[in-house]
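Case 608 in the screening queue. Each case pairs one protein sequence with one candidate compound; here the compound is 6-O-phosphono-alpha-D-glucopyranose. For every case the pipeline is the same: read the inputs, emit a complex structure as tokens, and attach any notable structural observations.

Predict complex for case 608.
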Amino acid sequence: MCGIVGFTGKSAAAPFLLEGLHKLEYRGYDSAGISVIENSVINTEKTVGRIKALSEQTNAGALTPGFVGVGHTRWATHGAPSIENAHPHLSGKRKFAVVHNGIIENYAILREQLIGEGVKFVSETDTEVVPHLLEKYYDGDLIKAVSKVVNLLEGSFALGIICTDFPDTLVAARRFSPLIIGISENANIIASDVTAIASVTKDIIYLDDNEIAVLTPEKAEVFDLSGNKISKDLSKITWDVSAAEKGGFEYFMMKEIHEQPHAVKQTLSGRIKNGEVVFEDFSLTTEKLKSINRIVIIACGSAYHAGIVGKYVIEEMVRIPCEVDLASESRYRKPIINDKTLTIVISQSGETADTLAALREAKRLGSHTVSVVNVVGSSIAKASDDCIYTWAGPEIAVATTKGYSTQIAVMYLFAAWLAKHLGTKDDKYIADFLSEVKALPQKIEEILSLEGLLKEMAKRSVNDESLFFIGRNIDYAVSLEASLKLKEISYIHSEAYAAGELKHGTISLIEENRTVFALTCYKALADKMLSNIKEVSARGAYVITCANEGDTDFEKESNQMIYVPRVHELLVASTEVIPFQIYAYYVAYHKGCDIDKPRNLAKSVTVE
Ligand code: G6P
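Case 608 output:
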């Protein structure tokens, strides 16, 4: 996790570093720091807290003048959040300052060796070995020292390095952690992702694994680990800078909830043609598809929940067994994957360490891999055989909303694409299904008008200590996501249960006034849900039912109703999830929680 930035330019470095870190706070925010070179001295400021505190401490950067610097916002892995453990980390003679995102897996051995040689460590971090190693191997040739050190490191890292002997130079290196270079007339910069760069420039270079970048205000050069110069292509950031700003909303999460109709429209855009799905540049052929006997979907968090929606839709439309696996489980279980398995990995950030590792393992085992990713050029997008971008635009709030909605939209497209290529549904079915998919942005828009009602309703849950979400089939898949949304931002314990399983245990927790959300939009099982609602309401539960407009049968058994517009039965996740995102938001809001940055969480989890 963590976010890093670096700057070398003709103007002061600190204001960019602070602004860039602020944009990267979603990656971790338990401590932060910057180092800037002035008159061949590295000045460092750190805080245990947010970037706002660091900005105040440095008087918006005025107290750390200088034209080259690095900065870091941390999500603690090795050592608690503290000033000592906050980055940047310095070498003993204060010649090098280093910021790092990722985990150096062999740091303990390296640290022991350095201590044996008399080096004094001030932090518990894995990162601190890097500046000490740089000082050890530096003989006046900076690139040589960085190459030597990078070759010694195992694990994942994106590094930003400055050295007092080169007061206009910023060095960066990466392996398995994201790092982007921004090129502009007056400054060259680095950052963990484009949100921190977009306000300065739209011209970027994606640094690849095992590459080292050497930047001065005038030049950006990239080398391999043997010191050979590599020629790199310049790419353009295509989205608007304002997309990464709040635009009048109090929190990014609500802004992103409201962006969902547009985001889903973007996901579908250009991909439905003449009643069928078209994926540009897809290498997966019909012939290859015909040899597939199993589909495995791998992901983490909400992306895993999107995968469960995908399973229900794909199995129904394509009749191929489809399994959904947590990436952190899949990667260490010797997964049964081979060349007859189609592997789909889902990841908003495209950088989740477990998902990336599981993808690589699936590829190694001979599977064709398709990724569903939001961030263009991310590691997962690049490592997969085919990538379907969700085109949701930057998502900043830690709790995903439009990321999830666009992932399930891709699941619908992919299911329809598979059904067409495998002939499991006829052309009319597919065309009708896709025209309903196309109508989803409008239906989501309609649900957003429930915001006022849900804001009021949410007051009830401020005092809930524990609550339940129940559903069957796709309604169950949505229950998992609705429950996660609520607990991650409001800190209220919540459980999602397959409604038919309730009586095998959890019903013992239902007592007077316990809030139970019943999700009933999956029409084929609505009758079964009615029975389950009766079971909990008979035991005193306060039942809030989410149903399709017109399905009034549930009213008698429910304390409150939330109605959403009716859609194709396989698409209910797209409508049903929206009220629960809004409800979770307002429970957290009424409780005064930090909605965009819930405690202990981070958006992009680049550590396992
Ligand atoms: C974190 C985020 C979740 C996200 C999960 C997977 O836990 O807080 O919202 O679902 O990572 O992230 P990915 O980027 O792979 O979708």
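Case 608 observations:
- The two ends are 9 Å apart (CA to CA).
- The pocket of 6-O-phosphono-alpha-D-glucopyranose is lined by residues 300-303, 347-349, 352, 355, 398-400, 601, 603-605 (CB under 6 Å).
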